[in-house]
C-alpha cells in the first residue's frame, strides 16, 4: 500500500517511479549541471507516455513520503484517473500535462 492515499476514490495507484532511473533525455552535461530540471522533464515525459496509451485521462505524480513523512525529490507515487471516468473534465487532463 502506498504511503500517499489518492485524493479521490476514482484515482488508481499506478506505482512508484524513481526519476533517476528514467533515461529518455540523453543529456549527461545537463544532468550534471541541472539534474532537478532534467528529472522534471523525465517525469513529464513518463506521464505523457502513460497518457498516450489512452487508458488514462489524468496522471498525477506526488512526491513519495517515507515513514517520517519526508517527501522525496526523486521518487514519486503515480495516480491515474481512467479514461472512461466521466467525472474528469478534459481541461483537467490538459492541466496535468
Report on this model:
With 97 residues, the protein is α+β, with helices and mostly antiparallel strands. It is 32% helix and 30% strand. It has a three-stranded antiparallel beta sheet with strand order 1-3-2. The chain is flat and about 40 Å long. It starts with 11 loop residues before the first strand and ends with a helix.
* Uncertain regions spanning at least 5 consecutive residues: 1-6, 89-97
Largest sheet: 3 strands, antiparallel
Q: Percent helix among the residues? A: 25-40%
Rg from alpha-carbon coordinates: 14 Å
Percentage of β-strand residues: 25-35%
Distance between the termini: 26 Å
Q: What is the helix tally?
A: 3
Strands of the widest sheet, in order across it, are 1-3-2
Order of helices and strands: EHHEEH
Overall, the morphology is: flat
Give me the count of strands. 3
Structural class: alpha+beta
Give the mean pLDDT: 83
In short, what is this structure?
By secondary structure, this protein is α+β, with helices and mostly antiparallel strands. The protein has helices at 28-33, 35-52, 90-96; strands spanning 12-18, 56-65, 71-82. The longest helix has 18 residues, at 35-52.
Amino acid at each position: 500500500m502506498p504511503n500517499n492515499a489518492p485524493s479521490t476514490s476514482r484515482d488508481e495507484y499506478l506505482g512508484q517511479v524513481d526519476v533517476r532511473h528514467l533515461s529518455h533525455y540523453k543529456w549527461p552535461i545537463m544532468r550534471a549541471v541541472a539534474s532537478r530540471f532534467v528529472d522534471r522533464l523525465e517525469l513529464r515525459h513518463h506521464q505523457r507516455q502513460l497518457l498516450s496509451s489512452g487508458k488514462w485521462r489524468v496522471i498525477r505524480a506526488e512526491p513519495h513520503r517515507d515513514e517520517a513523512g519526508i517527501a522525496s525529490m526523486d521518487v514519486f507515487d503515480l495516480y491515474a484517473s481512467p479514461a472512461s471516468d466521466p467525472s474528469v473534465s478534459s481541461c483537467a487532463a490538459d492541466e496535468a500535462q
